[in-house]
C-alpha cells in the first residue's frame, strides 16, 4: 500500500427500519470486534496513519521533549490529613505511574516533603509501577483506606475495559489478604470499623446497578441493593464524618439517596426521600443535622437542612438564584463550604456556624447570615474544594488554576481568612506567566444568545493567529479555564487557544445545560460555529482547528457537517459520532441511561427524526471537508471504537477534501494510554498534527 492510498472499507449493506424510515448502514460490520476483517481494517488504518504522518516524527518528538522538559518528573502532591496520617503521592523520573505514601501526622500544618527525598518515617501504600509491571495498560479504580488507617482497598484494570479486580492490603504488615473480587466497578466505601467494604458491579450494558457488602475473610458477599430501572446508576460512599454510608441511585435527571449508620454495616439502608422524576438531591452529614442540596422547584439548586431523624424534611437555607448554580456542599464539624458557579466562573462560599450551645438550626441560620465568599484576583480562573477528608479542621484545602496560572493548592485559614499557598505545579524551562494573557470574549449565537469564550495567548503573538478551538457541551460538564503544560507548545508557536463554552455544558447554570440537550441539542453545534466565526471576525484567528473528545467528539462531527469551510482541521478523540445508531440500541453499554440526555429515538419518532438531522455519521455529504484526525481505543466501553471507524470510512467514501485519518489504540480504554510518558507521546502526536494544520 502506498502512502497516498488509504484503506477502503468494504460495504456490507445492513438494513434497519425505525418509525417508517429505512436506512442502509454499509459499515455496521465494523461493530463486530471479533471479526478478523475488523481487526485487519483497524490495523490497516493505523498503518496508513503512520505513513501519512511520518513527516511529523521530528516535530512530534520535539513537542514530546518540550512537554517532558517542562514537567518536574520527580514530584509529589501536597499531603492531606486523615486521622493519624498525612497522605500524598510521589512521581519519579522514568516511571509511568504514581506512588501513594503516608507519614504519621504531627500538627495541623502539612509536613515539608521534598521531591526525590524520602522521609525517615514514610510508608509506601501503593506503588502503581510495581503493580503495572510490564502491562501495556494499567489503571486504579479505587484506593480507599479504612477509617482506622489499618487497611487499604484497591482495584486494578489491565485492559482499559473498566472491569476492576478488588484486593485488600494490611497497612500494618504490608501483606495482601487472600480476599479477591473480580469484575467490579469504580469506587467503594468502608464501614466505620473497617471490617466491611461495599462495592458496585455493572450489568451487561456497563451500568453500575448492584451494591455488594464484603466482610473481610468472608467467602460469600451479600447483595444489599439492586437497581432494576435501566436509567439509573448506583454508587456508594462514606460521609466525611464517617458516620453514614450513602448509597445513591441516579439517572441523568433524578436521584434517590439511602443512608445507613456506618457502625452497623449489616443494617438496612433507609431512603432519605423517594425518587421523583426530575428532582436531584444530595445529602451531607454535618454532625447533628444534614445538609441537602436539591433542585425541587429550584432549577439552579437550593441548599436546605434536615434533622437526622427525618432527613426527608427539608428546610430552605440558601434559596434558588437565577444567576448562581449551586454545585456541591462540603460539611465539616463547625462550618460548611458551598461550591458554586456564577457568570461562567466557579467560587466558594463559607458558612461558619461554630459548635457552641445553640441548637443546630440556630447555628446554621446564623452561619448563612455571616457567610462570605473567598475572592480571587484573576479575570478567569477555576477554584474548587480539594483534598478535605478530615471532618474537624479549621483549614479548607482548595485547588486553584487559570489559563496562565499552573494548578495551585492552597489552605484557607478560616480563623484569619488567609490563603496559604502550599504548592504550585512547577513548570520548568523558564515559564513566566507574565508572558501570557487571558481574555473573556462573548460570541453571539444564531438566536442572539451570548456565548462565553475563554482565550489565552502569548502577549507577543501576532493577531490574527492560528487557533485551536476546544469544545464539549454535554451533561452539564463545564470546561473551565485551566492551565495546560502541553498547550504551551502551541502558544509558544504563536497559536491562540480558546474554549467555546457552548450550551449543553454547565458554565452558565442549569438553564445553559437544558438549552443544549434533547430537542435543543443543535444549539450546542451552532454555538460552536458561531464562536469560530466570531474568532475570525474579531481578528483573533485566521485558521481555526477544532478539537473535542467523547461527547465533544460528537460536537466535532456535527460542526464539520454544518460548516466544514470554517475549520482548517478537526481532532475528534473517542468521538460519539454514530449517535443515532448507538442510542437506538438498548443492548449497547449505557444507551438506556443516555435517553435522558439525548432523547429516546427508539420509541419516539420525533426524537428519531431530530437525532437523524444532526448525528454526524448520518449527515456526511459530498462537500469538501477539512482534514480530520479521529483517535479511538479498541477497549473503550463508553464510546465504542466502531463509531469513529465507521465515520472515517463514510467520509472517505462520500466526502471530498481531507485527508481523513483514524488512529486506534489497540490496548487502551476511553482515556487512552495509561502511563504518563505514553500519554505525553499521544498528546505530542495530536499537537504536531494541529501545528501543521495551523501553519499549512
Automatic annotation (TrEMBL):
EC number(s) recorded for this UniProt protein: 3.4.21.83
InterPro entries: AB_hydrolase_fold, Pept_S9A_N, Peptidase_S9_cat, Peptidase_S9A, Serine_Peptidase_S9A
Pfam families: Peptidase_S9 (PF00326), Peptidase_S9_N (PF02897)
Keyword Protease among record annotations: yes
GO biological process: proteolysis
Tagged with keyword Transcription: no
This protein's UniProt keywords: Hydrolase, Protease, Serine protease
Family: Belongs to the peptidase S9A family.
PANTHER family named in the record: PROLYL ENDOPEPTIDASE-LIKE (PTHR11757:SF19), PROTEASE FAMILY S9A OLIGOPEPTIDASE (PTHR11757)
Protein name: Oligopeptidase B
Organism this protein belongs to: Nonomuraea aridisoli
